Amino acid sequence: MNKKKLIVPLILVLAVALYFVFFYKDKTLKFVPKNADAVVLIDLKKLTGQYISSFIVHPSKWSGSKTKDKKEISLKDSGIRIPDFLQIFHLKDTKFSEWYSVVELKDPQQFSAFLKSRQFISKGKDLFRKDQIFIKIKGDNALIGTSDQAFDPIDKLLFQSPEKNMLTADQLIDHGVGSISFISGQKIQNFSIELHADEIEIKNTSDTGTLASIIAGIQKNNHFVDIELDAQNVKHYARFFDKNLADSAQISYFKATADLEQVNDTIISYEYDDNFNEVEKKTFQKIIQPNYVIDLQSPAPEKTWNYFQHKKWINAQDQFTAIPFQPNHIGRNDGGLIIKSTRKPIPLSPKLKQNYIFIRNSPLLLSSLRTLTPKEKEVLSDLEYIFYGNKAQNYWVKIKAKKGKLPLILRW
Fold first, then answer.
1. In degrees, to the nearest 5, what angle opens at C-alpha 252 toward C-alphas 242 and 235?
2. Which of 384, 32, 51, 9 is nearest to 218 (CA)?
3. pLDDT at 359 exceeding the cut of 70
4. How far out from the chain centre does Cα 326 lie?
């Protein structure tokens, strides 16, 4: 057969193969239960394409990692069937910290070996745990979560119930490598996740100019934390701590500024001498403490004060005990309450009349987080700041990393 006649069929076969490998996607979200109220969706094929294109233009990564542990089983040999869309969900009426996902397995035994190679501890009955990650093998599927509390309900909802969720990826994700969606009945609010060279954006608008201008003003103050929120935003964030907090405390405005400082902490202990006399012993250690000021405004400051007293958050010395960093002082003024650290008071940053949360990275923060793994510390040390901004119905979260030789997708 003429070799030239083979070229066209081969090109067609290659084109079809490339389409199914990189572009064709199963958009049915069969691993999202009907009672999910939030879903994080990651387009793994788009993420893979972004990785490959970045990898090609950065030859310094071609040699690969020289420090990889040969005893670890790689993800491609883990027995997992890589999905087109990774589906991570939160269930209604569960703790905010509880998130779950389900993946299909090509080989459950191979996956079990993979978990052991990654130092997961078997808890029996095909349940594994490492730190705050729980994994349960159920037949040809693996349930993954930050808790194991909902594994049985999820199994019943997804694999034993005749009712199936009819969500598709097109309902949740438009562009970007992923999305975060909040579901309330038939209403779905979507936020795109976009991965750039040195930043990650989560937003529901393309018009971020007004919100971006806030960052320039905040950075001039050089504070570790700078927050300003109106009543609606206070209500949103108070729910993470107590669903009724914002309404009960009647807080209509929240403003906070904080800096970090390393201080010497005195530890007093007691020993006994040879004559059994008690002897005081002082030791010193360096700890990281925040200096902060918080302005809480309320239409009824007395009711706010009484609510805090009812919750036993104000002691006899007028210290606000709900904040673990002591000492501090809480006082009243015409518009509300002021909470200040007393060891080293700092002034409140200027009011911008905007809604934002700004957290700047700090070497002092990293040194205080001693439970993190080396890899987690490496990721955190690479960050410059985290910003949340809200203007009317527009929301924007920006995770800004320091500029580096490699884009984030090749660094992390």
1. 30
2. 384
3. yes
4. 27
pLDDT above 90 covers what percent of the chain? 60
With H, G, I as helix, E, B as strand and everything else as coil, classify residue 128: strand
Whole-angstrom CA distances from 401 to 18, 134, 265, 278, 360 are 33, 29, 32, 53, 11
Cβ contact 112:59 at 8 Å:
no
Question: What whole-number distance in Å separates Cα of residue 364 and Cα of residue 366?
Answer: 5
Q: What is the CA radius of gyration of the chain?
A: 26
Its sign, for the CA torsion 210, 211, 212, 214, is positive
Give tens-digit pLDDT for 156-207.
Answer: 999 988 777 778 999 999 888 999 999 998 899 999 999 999 999 999 988 8
Provide CB contacts within 8 A for 37, sequence distance 6+.
90, 91, 92, 182, 183, 184
Give residue-wise pLDDT tens across range 78-109: 899 999 999 999 999 999 899 999 999 999 99
d(CA 201, CA 399): 6
Q: Give the tokens for residue 104.
A: 């299909």
Distance CA 193, CA 41 (A): 9
3-state secondary structure of 407: coil
What does the alpha-carbon distance between residue 221 and residue 192 come to, in Å, rounded to a whole number? 30
The helix (run of H) or strand (run of E) holding residue 53 is: helix 44-56
What b/e sequence results for 46-82 when a residue is b if at least 16 CB atoms lie within 10 Å of its CB, and e otherwise? bbeebeeebeeeeeeeeeeeeeeeeeebeeeebbbee
- Greater confidence, 24 or 404? 404
Query: In the 8-state DSSP scheme, what is residue 151?
Result: H
Per-residue pLDDT reduced to its tens digit, 15-73: 555 545 555 588 999 999 999 999 999 999 999 999 999 999 888 888 765 555 556 67
Mean pLDDT of the chain: 88
CB atoms near residue 251 (< 10 Å): 22
- H or E segment and range at residue 213: helix 209-219
- Using DSSP, state whether 98 is helix, strand or coil: coil
Asked if residues 294 and 266 have their Cβ atoms less than 8 Å apart, the reply is no
Q: CB-hemisphere CA count at 13 Å for 204?
A: 16
Dist. CA 358–CA 192, nearest whole Å:
20
